Amino acid sequence: MKKRKIIAVLALWAVLAVSACGSAGSDSEEDTETEAQEASDTGEDTAGNSEAETETAAVDTDSPRLVSVTDLSKYVTLGQYKGLSLDNTVAEVTDGDVEYAIQTELKDTAPEVDSTVAAQEGDIVTINYVGTVDGETFDGSTVDDYVQTLGEGNMIDGFEDGLIGMTVGETKELNLTLPEEYGDEDLNGKDVIFQVTMVTIRRPSEFSDAWVTENTEYTTMEEYQTAVRTRLEEEAEEAAYDTLLETAWDTVYSSSEVVDYPQEDLDTAQEAFRTLTEAYAQEADMELEDFVESQGISMEDFEEQCEQYAQMSVKQNLVIQGIMDAEGMTLDDEECLAIQEQLIEDYDAEDFDDLVEIYGEADVYASIGLLRVEEFIVANAEVSELISNGDTVGENANVDESDSSDADSVQSEDSSETVDAQTEAAEEGNSGEIDEELEDIDVGDETEDPTVE
To answer: Which of 6, 348, 404, 420 is most deeply buried (CB count within 10 A of its CB)?
Structure first.
C-alpha cells in the first residue's frame, strides 16, 4: 500500500476547486434520479443491490464511527457502488523509459572529478553565484550550492556555456543579458554580471558491466536493464491501481447525494479546517486575517471555504460510513485492522496511538474507512484491464484486493529525475497526503531564480 492519500483525506486544494465540484454535483443529481427511476423497474436501488441486500446492518455502537449519527438514511442517498464498470489502465514501459531510469542512476552515482579537470557538457556541477544589475544585487541573485547538469538548457542564455571549462575552486564573471520577458519590469532585458564559483564537478560514468557490478546487485548490463524494466512495470501497475481506486471512489462520491448534514459533524469539520489554517499562519509568523489576505481572499471568502470544506468532508464520511453500515463493515473489523497496521508501518509510527497523536483520530479513521471502501468498490466492480494505448488486455476481470504498492526542482540534481505526473495527479484526486494538505498555500516568500528561463 502506498502512502498516496491517507490521513488528511480532503486536501485544501479540493476546497479551492469547488466550482468544479459544484458542476459535478449538479450532474450527479440528475444521474441519481435516473438511476432511481431505472431501479424502480428492476427491483434494485441506486447502489446496485436488491432492496433486501441494502438494508443497513445493525450498527455496532461500540465501534468507532466517522459520523455522529446512526440512521444514515435520513442524511445520505448512496450512489451505485456495486457493479461499476471501470478501466484499469497501466502505462506501457518503453525502452526509452528504461534508458532514462538508467541514465538517472548514472547521474546519482556520478563521482567527483579531480580538481584539475575542466567541466564539460553532461557534468553535474555545484556552484555559488552572485548576480548584479547596475552594480546592485536583486531578489534571487545570490545562491549557494546550486546544482545543475550542464547541457540541460534551463539557464538563461550563456550561463551554462560560461561554466564549461571551469575547474573546482575557480571563480569567473559572466557578462550576460536577462531575457526581455524575465518577469520583472525593472530587470527585463537588463545586462547582468554573475560572479560564479565552481564548488564541485561530478561526471556520470558510462553504462557498462563494470558500473553494474560496482553499483548494483547485478553483473551485466542486460541483467540490470531487465531488472529496471521489471521495477518500472511494477510501479506502473501500482500507479494504475491507485488511479483505479481513486476513480472508483470519485464515481461513488459524485453520484451520492446528501439529504441533510449532521450539524455536529459540520461544526467539527469547520473547526478542524480553521485550526489547520491557523497553524499554517503561525508557521508563516502571521495572524490568521493577514495570512488569509496574503492568499488573495477575504475573510468572508475564507469563512465560505470553511463551510465548503466541512460539507465536502462530512459528505465523504457519510458516504463511507453508509457503505460500511450497509455491508456490515466496522472500523475495527479484521480488514480495517489490517489497514491500520499498514498505516502504522507506512507512516513510521510506533503504534496506533502514536499515529492518532500525530495526525488526529478523525483523519486516521477517515483514511482507514476510505481505503477499506475503495477496495470494496473495486472488488465488486467489472474492471477492464488496459494498457496505456487503450488496448484491452483482459476482459472485465475483477481486480484482486491487493495492496498497491517529486516535485521538479530547478535548484537540485533531483530536477533531472522523472516525476510521474499522472500518478501524483491521481494521488491527489479527492484527497491529499498529510504533508501536502495545504500545499497550495504559500507560507513564505519564494524568489524566482534568475538563472532559470
So the answer is: 6
Measure the CA dihedral 346/383/66/438, to 10°: 60
* H helix count then E strand count, the chain: 13, 9
Alpha-carbon span 320 to 377, nearest angstrom? 11
Beta-carbon-side half-sphere exposure of residue 431 (alpha carbons within 13 Å): 27
Is residue 246 within 8 A of residue 430, CB to CB? The reply is yes
Helix axes 352-359, 334-346, angle to 10 degrees: 70
Question: β-strand 136-149 against 257-258: which pairing, if any?
Answer: unpaired
Tally of CA atoms within 13 A in the half-sphere of 358 that contains its CB: 15
Report residue 277 as a C-alpha cell: 489554517
Burial 315-351 (b: 16+ CB within 10 A, else e): bbbbbbbbbbbbbebbbeeebbeebbebbbeebebee
Q: What is the pLDDT of residues 29-51, one digit of tens each?
A: 444 344 434 443 444 454 555 33
**Residue burial 240-268, b: 16+ Cβ < 10 Å; e: rest:** bbbbbbbbbbebbbbbbbeeebbeebbeb
**Helix-, strand-, coil-residue percentages of the chain, each rounded to 5:** 45, 15, 40
Segment 270-315, tens digit of pLDDT = 998 898 889 889 999 999 999 999 988 999 999 999 999 999 999 9
Number of Cβ within 10 Å of residue 10's Cβ equals 26
**How far apart, in whole angstroms, are the C-alpha atoms of residue 317 and residue 435?**
21
